[in-house]
Specification:
The chain is mostly beta strands and 169 residues long. The chain has helices spanning 45-51, 66-70, 146-151, and strands at residues 9-19, 25-36, 59-65, 78-82, 96-100, 106-114, 118-122, 131-143. The chain starts with 8 loop residues before the first strand and ends in an 18-residue tail after the last helix.
Length: 169
């Protein structure tokens, strides 16, 4: 009997994000992302709803307007400075710099441009202003253990993805 996604099922999936307009792949995550359906909010409610009733091997495509997730691009979050004012460890496109304001709030800025004289960072989410398609492949569906239900997902070791642990889709 095929197990389908519903509350208290442990689900493993991989996903990629493509640009709606160009079809370019923006992000690919091939390692299994595991969660307990209905027990945590790792995915947006609209995505969880689309996954309901699906089974191992199914592929689900969810169009997302990233302006709804992250708001419109804010050009006030883009800064250019002389490269000599920026520590050498940040002289790499794609490098993340965590900055703190006078109130103690932090924001990630990504190095987006670099030349001999200047370095530009952008505090907007890289998907901001885009329409994308999340393509999720269901790798496994099984009954979740009581421990997994309580935790909302994988118990024990999981891959180090260098992120916050949530995917706001």
């Amino acid at each position: 009997m095929t197990k389908t996604i519903k509350d208290n099922k442990f689900v493993e999936l991989s996903y990629k994000i493509t640009d709606h307009k160009t079809g370019d792949v923006l992000v690919t995550v091939e390692y299994p992302l595991g969660y307990v359906h209905g027990a945590n909010d790792i995915l947006a409610p609209s995505v969880l709803e689309k996954l309901k009733g699906k089974a191992k091997g199914d592929i689900v495509e969810v169009p997302i307007d990233c302006n709804q997730l992250y708001g419109p691009r804010d050009e006030d979050l883009v800064f250019t400075d002389f490269i000599k004012n920026v520590p050498r460890e940040y002289h790499e496109i794609g490098k993340t710099i965590v900055m703190e304001n006078e109130h103690g709030s932090t924001r990630n800025f990504i190095v987006t441009k670099l030349n001999d004289k200047t370095l530009t960072v952008d505090g907007n989410n890289p998907l901001c202003g885009r329409k994308v398609v999340f393509i999720l492949e269901i790798l496994n569906v099984r009954d979740a253990t009581d421990e997994e239900i309580a935790a909302g997902g994988v118990v024990g070791e999981s891959p180090d993805i260098g992120a916050t642990g949530t995917i706001p889709i």
